Amino acid sequence: MARVKRGTKRHNKRAKVLGLAKGYWGAKGSNYRTAKEAVEKSLLYAYRDRRAKKRDFRGLWIIRVKAGAMANGLTYSRFIQGLKKMKCDLDRKVLAEMAVNAPEAFGRVVAQAKDALA
Prior knowledge:
single chain; mainly alpha
């Protein structure tokens, strides 16, 4: 069997890892072995936190919708219940955007939810 030295392949593989580790502190940015460990760990964090970001934003939207509903005299749970009764298709992201940037329109939605509850 022929001998395989992997000169350019090995160099490219290591250059890729060190490129991803560029800017890391100490040996993590220059030593291949420690850079590889640091890059693997950082990629795991990135994967995990892309999912956590979705949870965090949903919580933020709920807080903003709750504040807007409370300002119009309705609790968050009663507001969501009213939206479901009137079969409203607005999601929490849109409702939060309305509560922050268009409070008068959000107030009208809250009023309609109150009417649906009555």
